[in-house]
Amino acid sequence: YQRRVHGPCRMCLSTLLFGETAYDIPTPCFLLLTYGILGGSFAVAMFVHDLGIVLALVGATGSTAISYILPGTFYALMHRENPGPKAYAAAGLAALGCALVPTLVTLVLVSGQSGG
Known about the structure:
By secondary structure, this protein is an all-alpha fold. 82% of the residues lie in helices and 0% in strands.
């Protein structure tokens, strides 16, 4: 767990929030970011009784992004100068992925509330 908090998670969040690496931000921001990550993790551990729903949400979002959205987007962007049928199909694949994410998240939440 420490490797994920001290490394990639903090580095990504500091870049997104502050535009700098975690080691270049001021110490108060570094500490706030670290305690925010730990506090969020603690809150999930204390209030989520079944991690199955968390894993299902990660699967519904992350797997769909990796399988549908990102490959289609990258291919369409790489061939935007002279798009052909494959580039349009790739854009359609990305659009399908964007439509699947809210659908799958809704299904996960509805099935989680019904106990199934």
